[in-house]
From TrEMBL:
GO terms for biological process: methylation. It comes from the Bacteria. Signal peptide: none annotated. InterPro entries: DNA_methylase_N4/N6 (IPR002941), RM_Methyltransferase (IPR001091), SAM-dependent_MTases_sf (IPR029063). The keyword Ligase does not apply. This is Putative DNA adenine methylase. Residues 19-124 form the DNA methylase N-4/N-6 domain. The keyword Transferase applies. GO terms for molecular function: DNA binding; N-methyltransferase activity.
Amino acid sequence: MHSTLDNDYSGLVENHANLQQDYGLLRKQFDELRQQYENLRRPFSVTAEVPYTDVWTFKPVASYPGKHPCEKPAELMEHIITSSTRPGDVVADFFMGSGATVKAALTLGRTAIGVELEEERFLQTKAEIG
């Protein structure tokens, strides 16, 4: 005959209480980590009107006096920045050229860093963005 009524289970009760406390701490840490992850997720600005594909069609920049030979359309730069950053993020362009990336970043509420070897181009962009 096996009797369990005479056994002392106080150790199990204490272990259970400790496990509950440990679970509470782990759950709190998990919730904090999950919130950090959610805060770091980037927005994905794809809609039915603007599908995300590998073919993008943007009108080229029209010719004008002083146009940079490789100037990118503002809409293209805004699309790239919106798809890959959040307002307040830093966007860096180390080959600034016409400044299209910097201008788009500032327009979209990002912090912009622009670096350009040609001082005249750099000063022109600096004057344009104020």
